[in-house]
Amino acid sequence: MSTSRERAGQMMWVGIPGPTLDAATRRQLESIRPGGVVLFERNIETREQVRELCANLRKWSKSSIRIAVDQEGGRVSRFGCGVTPLPEAAALGADAGADLARAIARVRRDTAIVARELCALGVDVNLAPVADLAIGPENPALSGRCFGADPELVAGLVRACVEGFRQGGVAPTLKHFPGLGGAHDDPHLELARREGPVGEEALRPFRAGIAAGCPYVMTTHLVVAGTDETPATFSPRLVKDLLRGELGFRGRVITDALEMGAVAGERDAAERALRAGHDVLCVGSADIDVQQRIRESAARALRV
Fold first, then answer.
1. 188 belongs to the catalytic site
2. Is residue 3 situated within a structural domain?
3. What is the per-residue pLDDT across 207-225, written as a single tens digit (0 to 9) for each?
4. Number of domains in the chain
């Protein structure tokens, strides 16, 4: 029978230090026994190197391990070479205004190509697409990453991304639930906040992605005034009642990185996130102390 620490580790997707599975990285992974690994630029040099790294991770795990990456297109593209580049979402959205049906077909085709390339390297989860609306003052965290402000246009392109990635063999991820558009702050640095309840317009792209079969949704470190003063990361009202209940999502819910400035000071962040209804704890940091602290917090939730 597995311990609470072992089960907590399996709920974590973590970063690793470098481009190879060297002895030090193996020891770190053995300490945490994560259910997934998230790749960043520090882990990526060449196609051959990534393919070998992913193969070694799967061999090490001796079980099903998820290997994820942020390959949105534009400035958030961990693969600088070796994978077909996607334009930034803002440019795709601007072009779609003239002929949405044509843009949707193009996005579906191009994301399927990227997914097949990622799959060939050993990556099986893409932390994309961004389903946020580009509304209100531009948030630096979202610059260029949103398809636009029109919910119908964004929903169509989000659905196309989900369909394309799935067609190519990679699991997509809708983010950043319940919608970071209109927030004033960057959760990488501090807790984001936006006014007003979660409206149907902000939810429409998420509904479209869920209807298309998206298996993952990533939340964000955001307070939505008028709905819940608790950040979405820790909010059963937003995760269980809204995402699971009203939107009918049956896949897995992932936190955004728990070492981000918005929640880094929360000693019980992982415990609170699990109690709110999350299935996966994302820890982009490769710092073993950070990973162990988050695992201990998660284990506390699993002991009850």
1. yes
2. no
3. 999 999 999 999 999 999 9
4. 1
Is the separation of the CB atoms in 12 and 35 below 8 Å?
A: yes
Out of 95, 188, 268, 279, pick the active-site residue.
188
Instruction: List residues bridging with 157 in a β-sheet.
Output: none
Q: Is 238 within the bounds of a domain?
A: yes
CB contact burial 75-97 (16+ within 10 A = b; e otherwise): ebbbbeebbeebbbbbebbeebe
Q: Is residue 167 part of a domain?
A: yes
Q: Does the reported pTM lie above 0.85?
A: yes
Domain limits at 213?
71-281
Considering the candidates 132, 150, 228, 256, report the single residue annotated as catalytic. Answer: 256
Residue written as token pair 């399996």: 10
pLDDT at 243 over 80: yes
**Does residue 260 lie within any of the structural domains?**
yes
Q: What percent of the chain has pLDDT over 90?
A: 90
184 is catalytic: no
For 109-129, b/e burial (b = at least 16 CB within 10 A) is ebbbebbbbbebbbbbbbbbb
Residue type, 96: A
Would the pLDDT of 97 be above 90?
no
> Could you read off the pLDDT of 173-185 as tens digits, one per residue?
999 999 999 998 9
For residue 265, give the CATH number of its domain.
Answer: 3.20.20.300
- pLDDT for 114 equals 98
